[in-house]
Amino acid sequence: MSFSMDFLSKIYNNRNSYAEVFEEEDIKMIHVETAVEQVLREYIKMKKFILLTGNPGDGKTHLIRSLKELLDEHNAFVELDINEVEDYEEFLDNINQAIENRRPCIIAVNEYPLISMLEQFKERFPYYNEILELKDSSIIYNNDVNTNNGSSKVVILDLNNRNLLKKEVLTASLKKIIKISNVCGGCEFNKKCDSQYNLNALSNNTVQERLIKVVSMLGNTGTHVVMRDILGFFSYIITAGLSCEKRQEDEYKYYNLMFNGENELFESMRQFDPYHFSHPEIDEGLWNGTLKNDWIFNIPKINPIDVETEEEANEIFISIKRKFFFENERGNELLNLIPIEYNAFFDLLRQANDRELDMIKQIVLAINKFFNSDETEDEKLKVWITHKYELRNHPNVAISNKSFSLNDIILLVPGLPSHLKKVEYIPDHFLFRVFGPRGQKESVDLKIDLKFYRMLFLISEGYPPQIVPDNYKFKLYRFMNELASFQSRIRSNEFLIRDMGNNYSYKLSIRDNKYLPKRG
């Protein structure tokens, strides 16, 4: 069974991709098997009590419906949507009866209704204490203690923690869309429609590899998508989300479409648009039309240099450079031009970074320079005390006389607990953790995502602190206020006073009960 291009075009930003409106046969056709199904199958067979949580639209209903045969086989208690429950007392009785009869249970519930239900019923709700404990440890960091080794009777699978932007899922999804696509060979518009070209190109191994590589990087940037977003993305870059008749009116090549759609996935893709990465030799060759070798399909027919207007020339150049990235043997050279802070961030999250100490020092320097742009210290994190009457206001003065050494600081990467290790997860941040004098018993964390890390990187390289957006500034102020409550191992008799408005520094030393002020 295959779908027409018109049907495929409706998947993009359309309700056709929601489980609630698909026929059962359609669900089987578009369904892409992921590790979540494998985990759920395992725990259904073990007769676990499963709470499938997340945000609206995360795919809970679709997942449960895809496991219908197994659930029926094990006579499982199933609730597709807890919001549809009219009698909670009856609901609780049915759950308890199923548990007593050693039947597996699977309940789909959004995050807020789950919290409300637990608050309402407390210990009356089955496994109440275990559920609270598991919710608190849904994400763990490095060597944090994992309280659930799989022996618990309860499994909480929060789909909000799942990230489908993994290469394996993306590859399977793309191949699924290609497999079910019917090119409409007899269509009168076929010769003018780019869908056939897009399908042929996306079936090519080199094009696939580069596309998947770029899209998979988005997982580390904090982009969160569900399966319908991915299927919609691939459907769109084949069909432009238009009917066959509409597609004949203009050119709709996949390498342009993937940067032109309108949802979070497309918005995130634009930061990796090959057009942004300058390569003098390649750019000149593409502009002048002299780069004629190593094209997988065909050489561009029109060159920017051959058109009259600058606007048209730029449009052609952007399109050709995208085509070059995907369809020229040298295209990978453009990915090597991604800013170094991106690669450093990605490497750390993949735990493939053997320069963790260097990154700690870089962040220490950046934070020190944020409060004092003249600072060069990267071996000690200085603690700055600020005072302001309202959080939204910036402090006028900051004072420092204590610090923490590099030995007090570690970087922690998030992950899922061991019983959920098979679930697709891509870390999108790390913790910059500073320990107090009591060591492991007290610490302060600074959560750093890609955008925050880029800001810190630029400050460490000498950019002014004014480039930092207010939300990150306030995070740094809060971080410092928490650190200030600790007794530091390193305290000085010298106070550094910083005028945050005028960027002036004053040193105040205490010697023999005397105050010795000094400018600078």
How would you explain this protein's 3D organization?
This protein is of the alpha/beta class. α19 (356-371) packs across α20 (450-460). The protein has helices at residues 5-9, 24-30, 35-45, 60-66, 68-73, 88-100, 111-121, 128-136, 167-180, 195-202, 205-217, 227-239, 244-247, 254-257, 264-269, 280-288, 310-327, 340-349, 356-371, 450-460, 470-484, and strands at residues 3-4, 49-54, 77-79, 105-110, 140-141, 154-158, 181-182, 380-386, 397-405, 409-412, 414-415, 429-436, 439-449, 490-499, 504-511, 514-519. Strands 8-9-14-15-16 form a five-stranded antiparallel sheet. It has a four-stranded parallel sheet with strand order 3-4-2-6, sandwiched between helices. The protein has a three-stranded antiparallel sheet with strand order 10-12-13. The chain is built from 21 helices and 16 strands. β14 (490-499) and β15 (504-511) form a beta hairpin.
Supply the key terms.
520 residues; alpha/beta; 5-stranded antiparallel β-sheet; 4-stranded parallel β-sheet; 16 strands; 18% strand
Task: Provide a quick synopsis of the model.
The protein is of the alpha/beta class and 520 residues long.
